[in-house]
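Protocol step 4 of 6: structure prediction from sequence.
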Amino acid sequence: MNDVIMIDPTRSALDTATGPLPVLEISLPGTPHGVVLLFCDMGTLDRDAATRMNHLAEDGYDTLAVEVGDGVLEVLPVLLQRAAERGWSAEQVAVVGIGTGGRAALTVAAYAELAAAVSFSAPLHGSTPHGSPPHSSPLPDRPARTPWLGLFGAEDTAAPADHVRTLAATMSSSDVFTKVVRYPGVGPDFHARLDDGLNYAASYDGWQRTVEWLNARVAPRLSPLAVAWCSRTS
């Protein structure tokens, strides 16, 4: 039986206006497709991030994983600076968020212009799925500036159907393409690929949609041969 080889993320902290921000990073050799800012649900960075980051690495993406919530717009410039230091520009940066991180990804999609954004189980009403206090900042009341994909469980009490419909209408009222998917019979943890059939199917479909969303919108980095060719023909 073949052992699964996992990349161990490097750990560091970024200086922000509110103090050090713990971050996990995977930087791939060769020519990665792009970089994903992975916004984890609060309290899950050490538990879940490495697995998610390795899944994204399998599809050719560098990752920077953090826990971030309402203050995402204050720390976003720091994260983008870190990405820029690794050679990534805005059109090569995507955001994927889960839970409270999904709400942060939604906020980024409304206020920043990046390649793509995806939200899993973003809480839209009341407390977060894991019992954190209600959010102090309102949901974006403006259309998306970044192409945004919202994935929700139909049984998620923090994302009622009417709230999802209102959000979808707000985010889609611009030329930027957005899409919302609600999975019947599952709650906020469907992204975790639980053993029962409905959750597993929703998780598989959600992550497949995520990769396709990124691949269609993230501008790839030129290979060394392409860079050399551009230099010769410029």
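Step 5 (inspection) to follow. Strands lie at 10-16, 19-26, 34-40, 61-67, 93-98, 116-120, 148-153, 178-183.
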